[in-house]
UniProtKB/TrEMBL annotation:
SUPFAM superfamilies: Homing endonucleases. The keyword DNA-binding applies. Residues 217-300 form the Sporulation regulator WhiA C-terminal domain. Involved in cell division and chromosome segregation. GO terms for molecular function: DNA binding. It comes from Streptococcus didelphis. The gene is whiA. HAMAP family: HTH_type_WhiA (MF_01420). It holds the Pfam family LAGLIDADG_WhiA. The keyword Heme does not apply. This is Probable cell division protein WhiA. Residues 17-99 form the Sporulation transcription regulator WhiA N-terminal domain. Gene3D superfamilies: Homing endonucleases (3.10.28.10). InterPro entries: Homing_endonucl (IPR027434), Sporu_reg_WhiA_N_dom (IPR018478), Sporulation_regulator_WhiA (IPR003802), Sporulation_regulator_WhiA_C (IPR023054), WhiA_LAGLIDADG_dom (IPR039518). Belongs to the WhiA family.
Amino acid sequence: MSFTTRVKEELIDLSTNEKNELSAIIKLSGSLSLAKQGLNLSITTENAKIARYIYSVIEKSYAIIPEIRYHQKTNLRKNRVYTVFIDQRVDSILSDLKLADAFFGLETGIEPSIMSDDDAGRSYLKGAFLATGTLRDPESGKYQLEIYSVYLDHAQDLAQLLQKFMLDAKTIEHKNGAITYLQKAEDIMDFLIIIGAMTSKEEFEAVKLFREARNDINRANNAETANITKTINASMKTINNIVKIMETIGLDSLPLELQQIAQIRINHPDFSIQQIADSLDVSLSKSGVNHRLRKINKIADSL
């Protein structure tokens, strides 16, 4: 089960049958058709539980028994598409939900009363996510929440509604519609809180924290590996220079303090600078050891 599906099923279990949710669902997933007896309303979804939920909300809100139909997609995934079909009092439902103008192209944004009321806004966002929302699995490490709208002005209103809740929402227009999206993990977690999906929020946060901890460990390991590699490379360079001195002028030609450093380095190529300092007969700091090693390298370079 995808993370998006888990969020949606949590929302269904916690839902309060709000008409504002239904308004968003119908606006984003509904379509009208005309028959002899009047208007028909079809609401489509690929999730059977969402179809049953829409059925339940309509039945409780309007005392209407819809019909649930389904057909198989012809693409490779062959998902079922469920349709909640209503052929009674469609005009009164649209009027009650203030959706008539939206379907007839007069008003494609979000109803101002929803934009101005926080509770209504939360319910609408919940319905919008149930209808066309997708959420990338946080395990992927790339955070993205999207809600698809047929109309650009509806997507922009959704972004404005999200911004009312201090979320950094943006929109992008596509060939067949527009997307309202969030890309910051903190915004996505806040969105899940706003729509009431607390279990999903906690799961998202746990995955995020685990990934961050794992990345911190990897960065630390990479830094340590880089430091070890750097130390080994520096050590090998100095050892090669000491060998060069031995084969040309001999170690005896070096000052005594450099001879001792050279002997320790060549006998213990894996020693750190601090270990070399600790092996000396006299007390010497790490910078002092480095200074003497640089002198050895400089002598070798001059040969």
